[in-house]
Automatic annotation (TrEMBL):
Compositionally biased intervals (Basic residues): 147-160
Domain of life of the source: Eukaryota
Protein name: TIGR00299 family protein
Naturally occurring in which organism (per UniProt): Aphanomyces astaci
Key words of the record: Nickel
Protein's UniProt keywords contain Ribonucleoprotein: no
Record bears the keyword Coiled coil: no
Biased composition (Basic and acidic residues): 89-146
One Pfam family hit: Ni_insertion
Chain positions covered by the region annotation Disordered: 72-160
Alphabetical list of InterPro entries matching this protein: Ni_insertion
Length: 466
């Protein structure tokens, strides 16, 4: 039976909150640390610890993740067209605001901005835009009269910047499993692609601030590694909340969702924000994690819960607990992968297009022809090649199809399939041991098939027919 993780992000999502929920559900922090330490390029530059907190009026217990960096903050110059004044840093450890994925804001040009749009539920938005937000234990207070920073870590403006290729190479050079590497890179690909679109540039020119990248690496890779440690095969997610309000950053006052987050929302089903919640509820890191990893959005497939966890943000909202919940369980229905009855276009940011190829939005028209031989233009016979693959393989397989065929375009779409619950069993016979696959429907055996390769080996040994 497949093991799934269903994330309830109805109150919002941030990278650190997702990681915290998985740790709360049983993913061992020591093993996560050990895996992250294999990334030699950032070894010794970060630390991570957790604490128990209580959120909401009902005092819901949750795990809070804190990621710290060895880098210190240099005073930032005030933006030329902003009334805010940026003052020096002080070390404070109070936690009265929401966590931010400082990691997730990347820039495609040289400037003095060392901020992130990745604010995790951190804003009280009123008419005077007086609000605060926090980057992993960094308290920021923003007011129209001034802009004060209280940093616990991060944001050394003189650090090198890393682009997607650099981060991918760092991940590839680690001691993590192939599954963790590939899925982590998919998350960063989504994020870099969104930032490139927002800034009107290409992915290779999008640079992540170094200290931000450390946060993003810890939150992102830590979350993917936690899923592996929990034995998760599939990720499913609730609808993400589309919030309202404004956020002041060094780019000025901007409506939420922030530009990169909004770009990541393309192709993802959205829902309303919790009653009374104003501000940025979903961060770019949270959005990219769910977009890259989740198979479906909405209600989970039928499954048997076996564990659960809650990951906390920092801000307290008046009407809801600021947490991400994850439920770990096993699929219980043979048609459990059927969530939507119709196919949905594959989000363009989920998978990469080959170099020099663009992504267009098209409609697919299909019909059945049973009384004629279908012919296309110039009387050519109509042929369709279909490739069934995992979503993360779309880019590589598209490249192969372009290289090995004469086609100039490929239609791609995401759809569900019904899969019987199956078991594999070895059985003895007069010809030797053979593996069989057993298919179950509603608890009843409906299909038994031997493995062809085993039969072929036995046939060769006994000179019999398959």
């Amino acid at each position: 039976m497949g093991k799934i993780a269903f994330f309830d992000c109805s109150a919002g999502a941030a990278g650190d909150m997702i990681l915290a929920s998985l740790i709360d559900a049983g993913a061992p922090l020591d093993a996560i640390k050990a895996g992250l330490l294999t990334i030699s390029a950032i070894r010794g530059e970060w630390d991570i610890y957790t604490e128990r907190v209580w959120k909401g009026t009902g005092l819901i217990a949750a795990t809070k993740v804190h990621v710290s960096s060895i880098h210190q903050h240099d005073p930032l110059p005030a933006p030329q067209h902003d009334v805010a004044q940026v003052k020096g840093a002080s070390r404070e450890s109070r936690h009265d605001d929401h966590d931010h994925d400082n990691s997730s804001h990347s820039h495609s040009h040289d400037h003095s901005h060392d901020h992130s749009h990745d604010h995790s539920h951190s804003h009280d938005h009123e008419e005077n835009h007086d609000h605060s937000y926090k980057h992993h234990n960094d308290d920021y207070s923003h007011q129209d009269q001034g802009h004060h920073h209280h940093h616990h870590h991060h944001n050394d403006h003189h650090h090198e910047h890393r682009n997607f290729e650099t981060i991918s190479n760092m991940i590839d050079g680690s001691g993590l499993s192939r599954w963790v590497k590939e899925n982590s890179k998919r998350v960063f690909h989504c994020l870099a692609e969104a930032e490139a679109s927002v800034h009107g540039t290409t992915m290779d020119k999008v640079h992540f601030h170094e200290v931000g990248a450390i946060d993003s690496l810890v939150d992102t890779i830590g979350s993917v590694l936690a899923l592996e440690l929990l034995g998760v095969d599939q990720v499913h997610c609730s609808f993400l909340p589309f919030s309202k309000g404004f956020v002041r950053c060094l780019h000025g006052i901007m409506p939420v969702p922030a530009p990169a987050t909004l770009r990541l929302f393309h192709g993802i089903p959205m829902g309303p924000a919790p009653n009374g919640a104003v501000g940025e509820l979903v961060t770019p890191t949270g959005a990219s994690l769910m977009k890259a990893l989740a198979k479906t959005f909405g209600q989970p497939p039928p499954f048997l819960p076996t564990a659960s966890g809650s990951g906390a943000g920092t801000k307290d909202f008046p009407n809801h607990a600021n947490i991400v919940r994850v439920v770990i369980g096993t699929l219980t229905d043979p048609s459990a992968t059927v969530v939507n009855a119709h196919w949905t276009p594959m989000p363009s940011s989920t998978t990469a297009a080959p170099t020099d190829a663009t992504i267009e939005n098209v409609a697919v028209l299909e019909t059945n022809l049973d009384d004629m031989n279908p012919q296309m233009k110039k009387n050519r016979p109509a042929m369709v090649m279909s490739v069934l693959c995992e979503p993360h393989q779309v880019g590589d397989l598209s490249t192969i199809i372009f290289q090995e065929t004469s086609t100039l375009g490929i239609r791609r779409q995401s759809m569900d399939r019904i899969v019987l619950r199956r078991e594999k069993m070895d059985i003895p016979s007069q010809y030797g041991i053979a593996s069989i696959k057993i298919g179950y429907l509603n608890g009843r055996v409906v299909n038994v098939q031997p493995e062809y390769e085993d039969c072929k080996v036995n046939q060769h040994s006994y000179s019999s027919h398959v």
